[in-house]
Amino acid sequence: MSYDWIIDVLFWVAVVFLVGVYVSWRATRLDRLHVRVETARAALDAALVRRAAAALELAASRLLDPAASLVLATAAHEARTADADNREFAESDLSRALRAVVDQPDFAGALTAGAPGDGEAALDELTSAAARVGYARRFYNDAVRQARAARRRPLIRVLPLAGRAPLPDFFEIDDDPPGA
């Protein structure tokens, strides 16, 4: 009695099992990349809110001239209240406003004219928040780049492994720190 058909069946069962394991692994990898994008986006949003808060604090500190305070406060408010479509533009405007205020010739003198240490503390907070925005944006864009690369793979496109998850977009803003 020949049992060659059993070997053939076991072979095809093993092939189907291994293909299923590979497809499951790719789907899990893609899901983890999407979670990474969402986590990086939350960190980026937190960094942007912290930078806007630091800018508002500096604008309200009375260490700047009224015109600079108004420009800074307006840009920070616009950045905090912008909708998703205009967020990148508003954040870029805040970056430019921060550089315009910090790059003024008498900026250092205005900070030291206030209470000792207040101006320097506000500037340190602002500088730290601006640096964190740059790092958070790079991490987010790196996560988006990896997720997009994974979604371009033929297996992901042929089998709808991405489900209904939207294709993540890059976040491009002018995030050069003030005083640079």
From TrEMBL:
SUPFAM superfamilies: LemA-like (SSF140478)
Positions of transmembrane segments: 6-25
Key words of the record: Membrane, Transmembrane, Transmembrane helix
Name of the protein: LemA family protein
Organism this protein belongs to: Actinomadura syzygii
